[in-house]
Design a protein that fits this description.
Strand content of chain B: under 5%
Oligomer: heterodimer
Shape of chain A: globular
Largest sheet of chain A: 2 strands, antiparallel
Radius of gyration of chain B: 17 Å
Strand order of the largest sheet of chain A: 1-2
Helix content of chain B: over 70%
Number of helices of chain B: 9
Largest interface: A-B, 41 and 42 residues
Number of strands of chain A: 2
Amino acid sequence: MTTLTQEFSKGIVQENPVFRLVLGMCPTLAVTVSAMNALGMGISVIVVLLCSNIVVSAVRNVVPAKVRIPAYIMIIATFVTIVEMVLSAFAPELFDALGIFIPLIVVNCIILGRAEAFARKNTIGRSIIDALGIGLGYTLSLTLLGVIRELFGTGSILGYPVMGTAFEPMGVLAVAPGAFITLGILLGLFNYLFKRLGIE
Amino acid sequence: MNLLAIVFVAILANNIVFNQFLGICPYLGVSKRLETSLGMGIAVTFVMAMAAIVTWVVYNYVLWPLHLEYLRTIAFILIIAGLVQLVETILKKTNPTLFRALGIFLPLITTNCTILGVAILNIQAEHNIIETVVYSISVAVGFTLALVIMAGIRERLDLANVSSYLRGAAVSLVTAGILSLAFMGFSGMMTL
């Protein structure tokens, strides 16, 4: 039996969704143009993951195994719709920047993956911890990528210029190829780090 | 809107994988061999065209007249999941050969974000039914193209001497970045 702390930290390190499990790649590449967008996406995913994990765990003894996947997708889609409406009402700028990737949280494999692999077999309490850990791991990874791309792509962090006037922004990092290459290199770097630190 | 422009932009200039970042999971997962990526591409084309038509009809004739636009995400994912199941059942009964070829890809397609993504993009761009069909098929062809190019590269990449830390997803992503750079050249030629 793993302790709650281990349950929480595994989502950030051993089972980091981006760098270890390589899940949820589409939004990871698409919204990390700036740190702010990455953070917004990460928080939206945490909210949906947390709510869906709670509900899936709560109904785990009621839903027949045969129809569980459609049932989980419906639960997830409901919370995604709520997040969509809240964002468009209270954070219209972020809503426009994230665009189609807000409704696409429904098909983010991390969320369905946690429902299937964790929440349906565990209590509500453990599912909450799991959702927070995995969600935070995802948000941190997204933000790291967002900070790197924003810093070198436009010379600023969260919209504030930090590199000085002599810095020539590397435009390629702010567009599509930069997303792929930055994530690829980071993935390799983390593989190396994990190997060195002996985390498997 | 010029249909030819839609085809060009959807396949090359705004390629779904290299420019819109949709369908990265199958792109990384299924692009190991040429035959499997072709199979996946055909299955996606088939489902995407059908899903786009059904979601377009449902949105324009059910959700919009009833002012239920906020149910879009839920309705669309339900339609796609049902459709995939339907295609699977029909294929199994009527065409076992095709089913054996495409069968393993079909369950994966429900969570392929290109299908839901294209359904939503069609609504956002306010395409009519003909534009919807042309756009969806073009996007699917673009997706297949990306998968096939990557599979061709990957078959050679397996023989190359790549650092053990970069093997797998990491080197595939860097390769995708270089391909994406090449595809960016098309975006200067035509935009919608």
